[in-house]
């Protein structure tokens, strides 16, 4: 049995006020409603020797004071729409959990993280951050932190981690969520909506016809872990003078075209948006999805790379917009077009969140590494997720292609064919 005490940590910071959710927050809120989850993200990690409870409390105080998103609660209008309320001061709880002497503190910390993530969150009355320190035999051993996704996205978490290590004394320079709806941003939103409308009106109608192999549970996530891709993708990108993400996206479009026969392919890309003024160091969710039309059927991979680069660049340019206005646009186009285009595919390159990556040996043979590729089903569930969404992850010496798909549209054999086809295309291009 673990003992526990709770310390009230006071905080005070600038930027208090009330307003609409930022566009990135609106996107996250939509995902939260669809998934029926508060989308907690966090960690349980060992602390360096000499760490004290007071030191961790000071970290918590510093973060909540510096970042308005960490001291934000929601207020709901009569129609259910949320507004953000940033508080100037308050107190946030720090749990101090004492693990039994015979217990493994890592196991205890993981249990605390699970409890934090599985406990419902009240957006109107609770702070969006939960933190604990796990002591073992009286000495801090682990730190646990869980935040609501409305606070931060993956790249914002890296910004927070860096600033926490440096503790800059000056005020933050990033636009805060209450400040992000500028006149320039509104103009960019209007241009983005015109881009979306053009693609939705001119792309051929949805042609996913069914997989012929529907399964129960319906939704599968398949992982293909490829050391060969780790070795090959950089070579292809360097030769083409493109980002490796473009290489992976082109291979995805080509594989989908071969397996399903669908071309062009409407695909949503997750875009960090941190290249935009004021957002590089934002500790708040600023990622949104871009829409691009990938037409790579019948061309060689070199041409596919060029077409993908052009299409994705147009998407990135138009990836900052008002989600509410986009929702209204999509509904209007669907009413006015009898055979609407439907966006079923998505692509999210999440490799930037993994920092421990082995360097690539230029003499290594990607083709020889194919023998070490593994494929497994990570999860099967009836709870819906996006019909066909590829996440690109990274291990120290491998790239992981994680394909989430509705087996009623893309059966297990087709999922495997898409992932295998991506790997083969890139390795062939590199060797």
Would you write up a description of this structure?
Helix 5 (183-202) runs parallel beside helix 9 and helix 6 (227-240) crosses helix 11. The chain has two domains: 3-179, Chloramphenicol acetyltransferase-like domain (Chloramphenicol Acetyltransferase); 190-430, Nonribosomal peptide synthetase, condensation domain (Chloramphenicol Acetyltransferase). The strands form three sheets. Strands 11-10-12-14-15-9-13 form a seven-stranded mixed beta sheet. The chain has a five-stranded mixed beta sheet with strand order 1-6-7-8-3. The chain has a three-stranded antiparallel beta sheet with strand order 2-5-4, with no helix packed on it. It is built from eleven helices and 15 strands. It has helices spanning 23-35, 53-66, 105-118, 154-166, 183-202, 227-240, 244-260, 301-317, 323-336, 366-369, 412-430; strands at residues 3-12, 17-20, 40-46, 72-76, 82-86, 89-99, 129-136, 139-148, 219-226, 265-271, 288-294, 345-349, 374-381, 388-395, 398-406. The model has no long low-confidence stretch (mean pLDDT 95). The longest helix has 20 residues, at 183-202. The protein has 431 residues and is of the alpha+beta class. Residues 61-332 form the Condensation domain.
